[in-house]
Write a structure and sequence with these properties.
This protein has about 80 residues and is an all-beta fold. About 0% of the residues lie in helices and about 40% in strands.
């Protein structure tokens, strides 16, 4: 799991039926990591800082539905406290 910044979205006219109605986002790992395509579970938008879950657990956000995802946006971050 990590923090990321939504930098765009992916539009796919043909996709797996289970992904119908789901938004695919481009998310860059913070501070300057790689970009991944993540399924949005919370309604995030461009420019927002988000919490991303990766791996098998990424699909848990959609239970009981089985969604084929390797990365899922599971939270929109309001702020981060350090120290």
């Amino acid at each position: 799991m990590y923090l990321g910044k939504v930098i765009g979205r992916v539009v796919a006219s043909e996709k797996n039926d289970v992904l119908e109605g789901k938004t695919l986002l481009l998310v860059r790992r913070l501070p300057q990591g790689p970009v991944v395509v993540a399924v949005d579970a919370v309604g995030a938008g461009a420019g927002e800082t988000v919490y991303v879950c990766r791996g098998r657990e990424a699909a848990y956000a959609f239970k009981p539905e089985e969604v084929p995802t390797e990365a899922t946006v599971v939270a929109i971050v309001d702020y981060v406290e350090r120290g």
